[in-house]
């Protein structure tokens, strides 16, 4: 298969982890006789430095022409944000989501047996947890009107949802549930928000088309608690943009490190793959960033094109690295000194020689 | 002291747990020679049944005349919500918050030594956690304009904040931090929301007035993760309405049961005290509801009127009940059969005879 992949490494640890994902994709191309070409483009703070905008037109063009986008990370730490800045790195990420129409964000939350002890939660709480979060990604309060009054004393953000926005992701989520444990939980705040009541109505209407799927309804506050105390109750979680942002980052505590969480953002015509973690600038260029989230995002890219065997091989490599503790300091004893690159190298070697790398 | 207390038991387990808090307040009045009078009023589903509205004018009047309000719980389960209902139990709670101007909601999150093993989190994660959440309660998306288009296909909610709304709660939170560990964390989504950027600006402006307080800034998604993996980093958390709702219910996992979390809602002229948990209708009238959240809310009521010794005695009674495992099934072996009333009786007895109840 020929794939033209746009690579947007972004800021902070973005470039380091993305480099490992590219390395892994190159190994896959070699092993399976695919032709993957990689076109790099700037986004976020690095684009602002060079072009004065977080999302240059050139970057949009490269992404639009590509079969898929591999995204790194953007942004400053929350502590360093300047609320008065007119140009912000996040505009790069939000802009590309909108420009490519990436309305459906899929975030798998899987408790790996070899990492159970790394979680803040008790092992018996999390064992066998396997959740797929469907987060709506181009609507809601992220993309509604915003305003700041002239005197600077009043600020507003509007959360709007249209029926079609809810329908398209809801059908995807129901279908995913059908191929899994046939459970779907809608997370909303329908006891307060009009937009949440629309979500509720649409899901209640659609549900009968998927009679084999058991639907549950939770308020976001309650879901934030249930996710921790009874994570195994969840199969597919469907939710709006902001709630999905919160729940998926919270869910990283189940997996043991946010450095493990991958995601796919799908539109009708485009697809982007990115780790859930941010730019984590403090950790940049130290070789300590975990590349697994980016590598697993590459695996989701392979899934997307039906390259199942290829994706499975990448995941096997990841599993093996976890089993053998070839992991960065977020998951390992920091004195082991296993770097970002070393993890990438290990998985690359595994892909080249699945049998030989088996040190077990 | 003479106190006129409005009691709004509400729905589900509300009446059962509130009855225990009233019992405890009566014991305190007896022991310390106070005159507490209790005036009951309807709210939520029970008010809808009788008056066709979740917040009858009579209830507002009783609350307005009272020195303080003791609130139980309202609402249906998320599962049972009818998105088309024009009248909903939650309007009672939101309405009373607005009518009394209760803009500052304070939610303590304390990991009790005797309950560490009940948490879903590892004991070493949570030991010594003591957080005070300041949640803005009468602004934001809870009280902004809402709309549903005529064709039912588009729904909107507006999140608006005014500078003065942020300032008044921020000063309270900074003052609280000064009397604690002198740390304040603002939780927002300033990388996306205009309203969050206003929060950020106001807190950056105010912070220099409290030079002894160390301020941190976190995005809500990140905070939802940090709360679980590093809860001890937090002292006072300051946040807007919706984020406070989510974070405080999530934080119940630290404490081991949401049945333990109390809150105070303060305005310029009125004050209300209520458990964080909801009506939990499935558990109603079974004697299994934990009354501690309501009893600790009564302790916060006593705090509010400077009745420090009285509040301390209530908390001692609660501590003792936890130490001796006189607790409802959420915290105990369910075969122990310790009912809601039994827990209330134990704490009442303790207040009457602090020395004799010491079975230790
Ligand atoms: C960087 C930020 C704008 C973004 C979001 O909130 O969507 C991030 O947190 C994410 O989850 O991808
Ligand atoms: C019942 C509901 C409207 C309420 C809220 O969201 O504020 C509750 O969850 C709370 O936290 O007090």
TrEMBL record, chains A, B:
<keyword id="KW-0432">Leucine biosynthesis</keyword>
<keyword id="KW-0100">Branched-chain amino acid biosynthesis</keyword>
<protein>
    <recommendedName>
        <fullName>3-isopropylmalate dehydrogenase</fullName>
        <ecNumber>1.1.1.85</ecNumber>
    </recommendedName>
</protein>
<dbReference type="InterPro" id="IPR004429">
    <property type="entry name" value="Isopropylmalate_DH"/>
</dbReference>
<feature type="domain" description="Isopropylmalate dehydrogenase-like">
    <location>
        <begin position="4"/>
        <end position="347"/>
    </location>
</feature>
<comment type="similarity">
    <text>Belongs to the isocitrate and isopropylmalate dehydrogenases family.</text>
</comment>
<dbReference type="InterPro" id="IPR024084">
    <property type="entry name" value="IsoPropMal-DH-like_dom"/>
</dbReference>
<dbReference type="GO" id="GO:0003862">
    <property type="term" value="F:3-isopropylmalate dehydrogenase activity"/>
</dbReference>
<dbReference type="Pfam" id="PF00180">
    <property type="entry name" value="Iso_dh"/>
</dbReference>
<keyword id="KW-0028">Amino-acid biosynthesis</keyword>
<keyword id="KW-0560">Oxidoreductase</keyword>
<keyword id="KW-0520">NAD</keyword>
<keyword id="KW-0460">Magnesium</keyword>
<keyword id="KW-0479">Metal-binding</keyword>
